[in-house]
């Protein structure tokens, strides 16, 4: 028998990054929430290295679909306190640590 045959290597510690969208808070109607989530995923995948471009794409599409004025923040490590119009807030995570906030004033 050779060296190392039959022995298992110790399992490496792996960091699991969830790529699915995770809604933290939303008061949007279900249909609007689903459309917004799909839009966020599309924008974040298309502009994976440019959060500002992703935010602009989301804002423009939300304004077209649901009427202006929507506001969007895309980034990591930020806090917020906002006033918003009822049934027009979405706070979610995508790609592990990328947070997205969409609201209408």
What Rg do the Cα atoms give?
A: 19 Å
Secondary structural class: alpha+beta
Give the amount of beta strand, in percent: 15-25%
Q: What is the general shape?
A: globular
Distance between the termini: 72 Å
Largest sheet: 4 strands, antiparallel
pLDDT < 50 stretches: none
Q: Number of helix segments?
A: 2
The assembly state of the depicted protein chains is single chain
Give the SSE string.
Answer: EHHEEE
**Integer average pLDDT:** 87
Neighbour order of strands in the largest sheet: 1-3-4-2
The percent of residues in helical segments reads 25-40%
Number of strands: 4
Brief overview, please?
The chain is an alpha+beta fold and 105 residues long. It is 31% helix and 23% strand.
What does this structure look like?
The protein has 105 residues and is an alpha+beta fold. The protein has 2 helices and 4 strands; from the N terminus they run E-H-H-E-E-E. Strands 1-3-4-2 form a 4-stranded antiparallel β-sheet, covered by helices on one side. Strand 3 (89-94) and strand 4 form a beta hairpin. The longest helix is centred in the middle third of the chain and has 17 residues, at 30-46. The chain is globular. The chain starts with 21 loop residues before the first strand and ends with a strand. The mean pLDDT is 87.
Write the layout of secondary structure elements.
Layout: E1 22-26, H1 30-46, H2 51-66, E2 70-75, E3 89-94, E4 98-104
Keywords:
alpha+beta, four-stranded antiparallel beta sheet, 105 residues
